[in-house]
Specification:
Layout (H helix, E strand, L loop, with lengths): L1 H11 L13 E7 L2 E9 L16 H18 E5 L2 E2 L1 E8 L2 E2 L2 E2 L4 E9 L7 E5 L10 E8 L2 E8 L4 E3 L4 H17 L2 H11 L5 H23 L7 H22 L9 H22 L9 H31 L9 H23 L2
Parallel strand pairs: 1-10
Antiparallel strand pairs: 1-2, 2-8, 3-4, 3-9, 5-8, 6-7, 9-12, 10-11
Length: about 350
């Protein structure tokens, strides 16, 4: 019976299923008639009292012993509603990741889940807290399909709910918020912005250098979103860390400026680094830009959110600098760019080492 059910799910999600059935930290939802059908990868660290040997992995034996408990936890912590009404859970089934039919000790399991409603769920709301404690396990990318429409959302430990198929305007607002959160929560991008903003003074310089960075990352984000050209994250992430190191070294070598004199060589370097950061922004939202029906809304919203996040951060930095100038430490303001550059250099080096170790 289980083999028949698995065959049904593989057919239902043709193109999604792979040797592991679903990649880690991903989920799919396919709406067929009155039912919502899910395939969800769940981190082991998100589950309670199922990892007997505490090695962070579930063996085939542990899955057999705790199968019912995993199904229970999933059903309790993965909510699906439509128009405020809960559906009837028809099935929850745990599938161990495997290769060539052989079960693997894995840090996640795949759960097949089916919920039936009284009417077609055209705007399903998903709520979950099934996020792990390890690096990269604090979010879940969910791809939803309803007839010919597709939508992709990222659920996070901080925001574990999303309502699908609400239209382009609502999706635009979601991506504006996502862009802001990505910038303000991204240490690498903030460090780079810090190194370029302290390299000079005056609104003319600040406007020019930030515009250069913005135009550059918008170009590569768009190219990647349209599928024209992209670079693997294994190359992009170390390159972003290297860009922080480069700008920090330039600041320390040449000395951050204290006027609004244009340094076009530095601005050209910022533009080149911005191209790399754009690929980083694209990899952060991955397949969320692939649904053609919502491409414009998602791309425009995410770009605008990034710019708002940049503006908030840079405004905060400039306010701090202006405030310090008016205090008794104003005569030492020239030390701030040097200190900030050293901090960025050390942090960028640590990020680079970490990223290269992950390759």
């Amino acid at each position: 019976m289980k083999r028949l059910l698995l065959a049904f799910w593989l057919l239902l999600f043709a193109g999604t299923a792979q040797a592991h059935l679903l990649p880690k930290q991903n989920a799919t939802m396919k709406i067929v008639d009155n039912s919502a059908n899910f395939v969800v990868s769940v981190p082991v660290s998100a589950l309670d009292n199922v990892d007997d040997d505490q090695d962070g992995l579930l063996s085939a034996r542990e899955i057999r012993l705790h199968n019912r408990d995993i199904e229970r936890q999933f059903a309790e912590r993965f909510g699906v509603t439509n128009s405020g009404k809960s559906g009837n859970v028809l099935m929850t089934w745990v599938v161990p990741p495997q290769t060539d039919g052989d079960p693997l000790d894995s840090d996640y399991v795949v759960v097949l889940h089916r919920v039936q409603f009284d009417e077609p769920p055209h705007n399903p709301l998903i709520e979950t807290d099934l996020f792990g404690t390890r690096d990269g396990e604090a979010q879940m990318t969910m791809r939803a399909t309803l007839d010919d429409d597709q939508e992709v959302a990222i659920l996070t430990a901080a925001s574990g709910r999303h309502q699908f198929f609400r239209g382009p305007l609502a999706l635009f607002g979601d991506f504006v918020r996502l862009g802001i959160a990505h910038i303000l929560g991204g240490l690498d991008h903030l460090l780079f912005l810090l190194t370029i903003i302290i390299a000079g003074a005056g609104w003319r310089y600040w406007l020019t250098v930030v515009t250069s960075f913005t135009v550059a990352h918008s170009i590569t984000l768009t190219l990647s979103a349209l599928g024209i050209f992209s670079i693997p994250a294994t190359i992009v992430e170390p390159a972003i860390a290297a860009s922080i190191i480069l700008m920090a070294v330039l600041n320390l070598k040449n000395g951050p400026g204290r006027s609004d004199r244009m340094d076009w060589g530095r601005i050209a370097i910022v533009f080149a680094c911005g191209l790399i950061h754009g690929f980083g922004f694209a990899s952060a939202i991955g397949g969320m830009l692939t649904a053609s029906e919502s491409l414009l809304a998602t791309l425009a919203g995410f770009n605008i959110g990034i710019e708002i996040g940049q503006f908030l951060f840079l405004t905060g930095v400039l306010l701090i600098i202006l405030t310090v100038r008016k205090t008794g430490f104003g005569d030492r303001i020239h030390l701030v760019p040097h200190l900030a550059s050293w901090i960025a250099l050390v942090a960028g080096t640590l990020l680079f080492m970490r990223q290269t170790e992950m390759i």
